[in-house]
Amino acid sequence: MLSTDSLDDPQLHSLPHPDDEGVLAAAREALTAGASNVFIVGDEEFHIDACFLALYQQLKREPGIQLHRMMSPKVDDIVALFNTVLADLTIDEARNQQAQDRHIIVMPDFGPNAGKEWMACESLVNTFPGANVGLLAFSTLDNHDASALQQLSLKARNKLIRLSAMDRDAMERYLIECHERGALSDLLPTLADSGWRDLAMTVLGLTPGESVAQSVSDYDDLMSKPPEVSPETAPASETSKDESDEQQPSPKKPWVNWGALFARFMSLFTASIIALVSCSLVVAVAGALHPPIWNGTEALITPLLDSIMLWLDRLMQSLPR
After folding, report:
1. Exposed site from 36, 145, 156, 221, fewest CB < 10 Å?
2. Is the pLDDT of residue 207 over 80?
3. Which helix (H) or strand (E) holds 152?
4. What whole-number distance in Å separates Cα of residue 42 and Cα of residue 72?
């Protein structure tokens, strides 16, 4: 989806289909006078792009209209926009009166996963009609299920508009007009996935497999290729690489912060002593209150203490005298 706002954009000088001018006029009337939400769909992405650019620029010139374009709308962004619009209105005014300026939320690329954003907008528009907010969205038909579009069109405030399908005569006329303005090469990348690329190449006087020097895709391919290295310069580059490798300092040995390590060890040792003393106190108190607990604890600890004393005795005997 194109994002430029320039009035000098070549696609604004003509529309792809002869019916487009009337379609956009009906959409503009529904948005401004009818206070409706408009959803424009079509078969071809380049067709949607051209109509979006034309209608967007027409609406920008309309007095009393503020456009809010959201390329990837989020529910939070929509709610924040409504809060801004409603900031100067009371609840009663937002529900019953109509603001002076018309606000239109424009979604140029309404994808298949944007359903909840549209529903959020619809809910806010219906709840606060006084905010005078409308929706304008564009999408290709293959992005949406036919039944979902049908349900959307049945709502009173929604107007679903479908662009006329492009036939060969209309497409050839449009391509010739673009070629005469020098804009056909820029249009080619948007035709890559459609069935009109070969016709566009024919209008340019090229074979379908021939490259176009001014094509954006060709430019991207050219810029992505690494520069060629001549035989004369190759040894020099290898030598400089070897020299840079020799100049690199040897890796340093890891440095150990013994002070921090000792402090951490002492913290763990102190915590262990505190836990041991606490457990001893708990056992002593429990044994005083209930002697069987002390007897059971003594039976468990005595063999362990004997084993420790035996190990220490052996250790002392093994030490040199």
Report:
1. 156
2. no
3. helix 146-154
4. 20
C-alpha span between 311 and 305 (Å, rounded): 10
Q: Measure Cα distances from 174 to 13, 41, 165, 181, 304 in Å.
A: 11, 19, 13, 11, 95
**Alpha-carbon span 175 to 154, nearest angstrom:** 36
Please, which residues bridge with residue 135 across strands?
A: 105
Distance spanning both ends of the chain, measured CA to CA: 89
CA proximity to 11, closest of 49, 37, 68, 67:
49
| 3 state SS of 104 | strand
Quick one: average pLDDT of 193-205? 86
- Contact present, 48 and 163 (Cβ < 8 Å): yes
For residues 264 and 234, give the distance between their C-alpha atoms in angstroms, rounded to a whole number. 55
Q: How big is the chain by its Cα radius of gyration, in Å? A: 38
Strands (E), 108-201: 133-140, 158-162
**3-class SS at 128?**
coil
Pick 10-166's CATH classification: 3.40.50.300, 1.10.10.10, 1.20.58.220, 3.30.360.10: 3.40.50.300
Specify the pairing of strand 37-42 against strand 65-69: unpaired
> pLDDT digits over 226-279, tens only?
445 444 444 444 445 455 455 555 555 555 555 566 666 677 778 778 877 777
Query: What is Dmax (Cα atoms) for the chain?
Result: 110
> What are phi and psi for residue 9, nearest 5 degrees?
-60, 130
| pTM: predicted TM-score of the whole model, two decimal places | 0.59
Q: Say how far apart CA 303 and CA 286 lie, in whole Å.
A: 21
Is residue 167 within 8 A of residue 12, CB to CB? The reply is no
How is the chain split into domains, by residue range? Answer: 10-166, 167-220, 258-318
Whole-number Å distance between alpha carbons of 54 and 140: 17
